[in-house]
Amino acid sequence: MTVPTRYDDALPIFAALVRKTLGKDAPLENFFFRDASGRLTFVLTEDITESAKKALLRGARRIRPYVQDDGNAIARPEDLLDPELAHPDIGVFERIDHRAYSGFVRLVEHRIVGQDWLEPPQDPIKGVPPVVVFASHKGGVGRSTALAVASAALAERGYNILVVDLDLEAPGLGGIFLDQKQMPKFGTLDYFVESTLGDLDDRFIEGVTAVSSLAQGRGRVHVAPAVGSTGETHPQNILGKIARAYLETENTERRATFLNRTRDLIKRLSQRSRYEAIFVDARAGLNETAAASILGLGADVLLFGVDAPQTFTGYRYFLSYLQRFRPTESTETDWRARLRMVHAKASPDPEKQADFRTKAFDLFADTLYDLEEGVEEASFNFDYDDRTAPHFAWPILNDSNYFEFNPLARKEQFATQLYDRTFGPFIAGLVQRLELDKRR
User: Fold this and answer.
1) pLDDT in the model for residue 439
2) Average of pLDDT values for 247-252?
3) Which CATH architecture has domain 116-305+399-439?
4) What mean pLDDT is predicted for residues 233-241?
5) Percentages helix, strand, coil for the chain, rounded to the nearest 5?
6) How far apart are CA 149 and CA 362, in angstroms?
7) Cα torsion 212, 436, 281, 34: sign
8) Angle, vertex CA 225, rays to CA 184 and CA 402, nearest 5
9) 68-99: per-residue pLDDT in tens?
């Protein structure tokens, strides 16, 4: 069975082919054009013989799907209908250090992203265990730390947890749970890049997860990092992959947006083993990754924030935007009920926790709660002291033991006696919300 070429290998293999066929200076005197999906075209700025052209086209077939099947593996600048490509100084000189090619090439890239924020909140994915998204408006609030600790705590209690890193532009979960020898071959970033070019087989999906040997009790934590071992071997390609991860394609019966592909990824990963819950680390901020995670998975969404103005300013932007999707009447499946504030780095002082809760209550009251005059009792509305309400934040105390979180080096950070005093209420809230005790 022929193994398809992947993103990390395509340009080096093509460059090696060009150098072998046209000489060592050809990758610099001409240039490579990489389109928004990552496909490559070798653009000639000088004439070549017909026999050399045939040799290039014949060799380029081995680089599918990263070359065009219709003969566009080789072109002249005017063939690409972009006058700027005829400029003699077009492109950048990129260094390649690969088993197939070592040296510089001249490269022109085209990039594009999608519009998943236009989609309303989706229903839960059928056949998938409960999904919890760990989200935040700003970084540095301990979101990933809380996800990791909660995963380890639930594994200690006998639950199997799948952890998925969708923080593609600031990946970190892999390094929390897995040492370099444990890393899977691919990461979620590879999935989003490769899936723009066609369907991926089960072997590829199997290569996206690994079992953490660090967080193990009676249950297990399976980790799908953003970057796998292939990406670690070729770090120069990470930014190029990120630029293409959000590409929308039309290679299936539906529009393959980043949101749709995220749902497909979660579903396919969930079928690899039995899980009680799936924890997703979303990228901070209002970006395409966050849109797919927060709106696209039908998940419980934990909104992390510290008691600072930027927390409530940022969430006001977000919740105000979500007002356009408010249902006409509240039901048991109301997506608003899946939201929950988390008071990160909280003070143990009850009055300060109450102050955070007041700000959260005011925020939800101004945006997603149904507080208009004349609404019925079945509306989406909560008292200030209602512990089931989205605004009633779960506190995670500010603890210096977790300022530098590295459980691979400091295994005691996953010890029950250490994390319980800081994350105990948060973990208890998760267990209750997911009804894990009822599903044993």
Assistant:
1) 60
2) 66
3) 3-Layer(aba) Sandwich (3.40)
4) 94
5) 40, 15, 45
6) 30
7) positive
8) 125
9) 766 789 999 988 878 888 888 888 888 888 99
